[in-house]
Specification:
The protein has 85 residues and is mostly helical. Helices cover 61% and strands 0% of the residues. Helix 1 (9-17) packs across helix 3.
């Protein structure tokens, strides 16, 4: 994954609007994807973001992981509850 251009919530918003490009190069291995999701939640301090910021992070994870909104939301709830995905 080349996330060097994405470091802030503004960068994520730009990416979601389609003005930034990146690609997720993970195998279909669930453990790798879940590890990346957990790393992303920690990296952007998901637990301390407001509602708008959390929504951006979840949509970003949705787009790059290929998981549906419900699955990503479930993983985020699990992260909030246990600190792990």
């Amino acid at each position: 994954m080349d996330e060097t251009r994405i470091g802030t919530l503004e960068d994520i918003a730009q990416f979601l609007l389609g003005t930034a490009e990146t690609s997720l190069n993970l195998d279909d291995d669930k453990d790798d994807v879940y590890g990346w999701i957990e790393h992303t939640l920690v990296r952007f301090r998901y637990m301390w973001l407001g509602k708008k910021g959390r929504g951006l992070i979840l949509r970003y994870i949705e787009r790059l992981s290929g998981y549906c909104r419900q699955h990503v939301s479930k993983l985020a709830r699990q992260y909030r509850k246990t600190g792990r995905v």
